[in-house]
Amino acid sequence: MKMINLNKEVSYLPTQKIIAFDKKLFSYLEKKVDKTKSKKFRICLHKNENSKLHEMIIIHKNKTYVRPHKHINKSESMEVLKGSATLIFFNQYGKITKTLKLGAANSGKTFFYKIKKNIMHTFLFHSKYFIFKETTSGPFVRSNTVFPDWSPENKNIIEAKEFMNNLKYLIKKRK
User: Fold this and answer.
1) pLDDT in tens, 29-64
2) 3-class secondary-structure state, position 13
3) Positive/negative CA dihedral, 138, 142, 147, 153
4) Which of 14, 64, 82, 126 has the fewest beta carbons under 10 Å from its own?
5) Which of 33, 71, 81, 41 is nearest to 58 (CA)?
């Protein structure tokens, strides 16, 4: 399948009547994500950012920082294809309210979730690679994703690492 590269982290598939993936997709994604600075990569299955439905195959490496965030006007759903992670939910003050252990369907862990709008969340990745399919409504508007003041920005690498280590500690403490 020929991809159209938007940048080093995002590719689109050209308009096709049938899009099908097999296990070769995992190797392809792993090679692509290893070449990114952010350790994130996605293949968009929708036509462009203005599409009404956004479907993406996304990969994150295990040390990737996903800043806690919420979407103010849309829900999202995710199906885990490979790997394991913890999904963490927060209240408005940064207190953990719930966690879900995520894994592929045959792992015995949660392999699918859907969350409504305005729910603050992030991930801690446990496997070398975490691959999932995300579905949400479009169009994509960057300003409709809100980041809390109590979490470090992505560019603050040291603070982000400390934040993730603190999350790991808090989650262990909750058990």
Assistant:
1) 999 999 999 999 999 999 888 899 999 999 999 989
2) coil
3) positive
4) 14
5) 41
Strand order in the sheet with 4-5: 4-5, 10-12, 40-44, 53-61, 129-137, 76-82, 112-115
Torsion of CA 137, 9, 78, 64, to 10 degrees: -130
Sequence-separated (6 or more) residues with CB below 8 Å from residue 29: 41, 43, 57, 59, 129, 131
Tokens 């409709």, residue located: 144
Query: What is the spatial distance between Cα 6 and Cα 4, in angstroms, rounded to a whole number?
Result: 6
Alpha-carbon distance values, 39 to 28, 29, 45, 109, 147 (Å): 14, 11, 20, 24, 20
User: Are 121 and 89 in contact, with CB atoms under 8 Å apart?
Assistant: yes
Tokens representing residue 172 in the block: 């262990």
Stated pTM of the model: 0.93
Q: Give CA–CA dist 116/73, Å, rounded.
A: 9
Of the candidates 41, 38, 59, the one whose C-alpha atom is nearest the C-alpha of residue 3 is 41
Encoded tokens for 48: 């462009």
